[in-house]
Amino acid sequence: MNDKLTQIYEMQQSLDERIVTDRGIEKSLDEWVIGITLAMESEIDEIRREVNWKWWKNPKPIDKAALQGEVIDMWHFLLSLSRVVGLSADDIHRIYVEKNAENHARQDGTSAKEGYAV
To answer: Which alpha helices (DSSP H) does the chain contain, by range?
Structure first.
């Protein structure tokens, strides 16, 4: 799994570097975080548009390929944001594994974090 994560991380790095170079983009960390998170919000809206969330309208068939494509667009921006804040593919894997274990501990009521006792 980590090899696949490393592969898509490196692919995104290459795309990001191409866009920055070809378009002559210069941004501060703040500007990158704001810009990428705004793009992610836009992608979330596009994901939502692919499903039947409007209870006042007749449902439509869900185009699963289009929905999956929008989710992948979100992955592009998530990988870009990860890179901008200094997370490597290995960091993403390690910190995710640690946080996932903590989230399970919270659900088990064994976390030191308050508010999760069962």
So the answer is: 2-23, 29-49, 64-84, 89-108
Into how many domains does the chain fold? Answer: 2
> Tokens standing for 85?
């804040």
Question: Cα separation of 53 and 71, whole Å?
Answer: 16
Residues 117 and 66 in one domain: no
Asked if 116 and 61 sit in the same domain, the reply is: no
Which residue range is the domain that position 94 belongs to? Answer: 89-118
Same domain, residue pair 55 and 111: no
Q: What is the pLDDT of residues 2-58, one digit of tens each?
A: 699 999 999 999 999 999 999 999 999 999 999 999 999 999 999 999 999 999 999
Amino acid at position 103, single letter: N
Average pLDDT over the chain, rounded to whole?
96
